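cron nightly-structures :: item 1 of 1
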Amino acid sequence: MAHVISDECIVCGTCLPECPVEAISEGEEKYMIDADLCTDCGACAEVCPVDAIAPEE
């Protein structure tokens, strides 16, 4: 199961360098997580200042 980034994302870029498998990329209005690459480690969610990243339900 992958993590997802909600619309609460403020595009600050804090999560980008935290992903060990480079599954995060900048989208048009928010950052996106590639579910095929995400290993569900949660490193990105730990550093998100607005809690916009959570496990996919």
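cron nightly-structures :: done
Residues 3-55 form a domain with the Alpha-Beta Plaits fold (CATH 3.30.70.20).
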